[in-house]
Amino acid sequence: MAGGRHVLIAADKFKGSLSAAQVAEHVARGLRRAVPGLCTEALPVADGGEGTVDAAVAAGFERREAEVTGPLGTPVRAAYALRGTDAVLEMAQASGLRHLPEGVFAPLEATTRGTGELLRAALDAGARRIVLGVGGSATTDGGAGMLAALGARLLDADGAPVGPGGGPLAGLASADLSALDGRLADAEVVLAGDVDNPLLGPAGAAAVYGPQKGASPGEVEALEAALGCWVRVLAEALGERAAAAARAPGAGAAGGVGYAALVALGAVFRPGIEVLMETLRFAEALDRADFVITGEGALDEQTLRGKAPAGVARAARGRGLDVVAVCGRLLLDPRALAGAGVLRAYALTDLEPDPAVCMAQAGPLLERTAERVARDWLV
């Protein structure tokens, strides 16, 4: 009987409307309205960007907070998640666009110092395996601010510390990483993201993501040159591996934080959804499930490039489980969905074509959508 089934709801957030936990709550409510007594399990997921800490907390991690330096140098409160010696950090919490005033960007000055301070807070709390989710950052400083917060000395030709942000790296003359926090040597750092860009060049951090952070064409050029200087100076300090790391997949993530993590923290870059599914013990949840619902705000071409729903569907289909998706907007055809392992997708815009109304009424619309899912698949 349908009431005896076990449905796993593993969706990402609907950005601007609902957190991943809220998505699961509304889906479960709609399913049970159609099938009273249905057994549902919520496991909110994320791909390393915004919402990653919330997903970890929903899976049983403890929420912790620290006061750190925001991207503009002012203090901000940043959350991270801790379970035993495992920590999940979300770069956007410390150095994200969310901390900039509306309509204000600082492409040359925004710093990742707060991300380094958040890493240090996790180490202070006993973390020895740190998942650093990248995405939603306001910065293009190559991770220089992060390393400075962890003990690196980055100096200009006069022996003074270089200023914050990517722009001042053009004046960097020397880098001394000998005083980096010693606990990092015994810690495992996993860089979790959904982009594999190198640090430099036409596919690099400045060229691809600089404009999204408010950089003009001239500022993109300046950032590219500054990041090139950053690589040269680190190569002088650390050897050829620093130059090689700039070309590695993921080095360009989050304005180059990926590069600093790879070259100085011994980090390993992995697709964010894979890391988060392991950390949140997704395989154990799949063992209990016989039907899976995933989703996110928009199912589009980006979804197929390592976003959370694609990862969930791939893992579930690998177990022979049926997977359907819910979303705000659907921009993939049935063939693309099938290729991703999704049998069918249900969009809120099927019920309400006005996007603004969809955003405002996402919860109730999602419940109605979940009722449709239940009638189609669970009755």
UniProtKB/TrEMBL annotation:
NCBIfam families: glycerate kinase. Belongs to the glycerate kinase type-1 family. This is Glycerate kinase. Keywords: Kinase, Transferase. InterPro entries: Glyc_kinase_flavodox-like_fold, Glycerate_kinase, Glycerate_kinase_RE-like, Glycerate_kinase_sf. One of its GO terms (molecular function) is kinase activity. It comes from the Bacteria. The lineage of its organism: Bacteria, Bacillati, Actinomycetota, Actinomycetes, Kitasatosporales.
